[in-house]
Amino acid sequence: MRVLTFNVQNLRLRRPGGRERLDGARDGSDGESALDRALDFADRRLTAAVLARAEADICALQEVFDRDSLDYFHDHLLRGAGAAPWPWRACLEGNDGAGRDLALMARRPFAAQSHARLLPGDLGLEGRADLPVFSRDLLAADFGPLTLFVVHFKAPWPDPQAAWIRRNQEAQAVRRVIERRFHDPALALWLVLGDLNDPPEGTRAVAPILDPFGVDLTRRMPEGERWTWAEGERRGCPDAMIASPALAARFPRAVPQAMRAGLARNAGGAQPRLEDVGDDRPHASDHAALVLDLPGL
To answer: Domain extents for the chain?
Structure first.
């Protein structure tokens, strides 16, 4: 089994004047320039090219607007990029008012479970009683013996301290969900993957799901390769794959690989880019994809 996580940066289908088109890999949707619109299709061809290259059996995606956007992208661009189909797909409405939802595509059947409506009190956590615990969602799905938990935690802005508190609560909530699902989480096979949005500096907001509860598989990557996002001189690895102790022990040589072929050239790094990638745009996303091989699952 090959598993992938990829923040595809605002994948949204629009129908201006009755004509279908996808937004590109860019932030913001109001007042976009003619240049932005001209680059949108080039961006999404590159997004599709990265996914086609990865050839993952299961793709966990962040920042997909809705199921229509996912299906249009799959049927028109992914297939055009030469990818084998992912017949089973899900994109459930979460709590992000801008439509940055979580999605799954797979080459085997699954049923996705949303946790978007969970309140802190439902899990025995402190917090506003009327505010859902997840900024977007926690999307869970079983694939044979392996359970995936797809996340996209609160970004560290506009208020970094308030965002830290929210991410910490999200991490606690993920842990509670896992603890309630499995009699002994350490012995079960599960993987938390997605965009943690957690800076590595200081105390980690996501500590509740890290060692000893879970094993951060990105720590197995060479230090110089442990990045999936860049802005100017800054680099980070907000994208994560956190395995249960049993899963990590079963696959001691499983190391995530960052696919940076679709990142803008000004992000740097030695990995070659796809031919059409520009210094800034077009690009596949402002994140690299992470892929992980789990043979035999």
So the answer is: 2-293
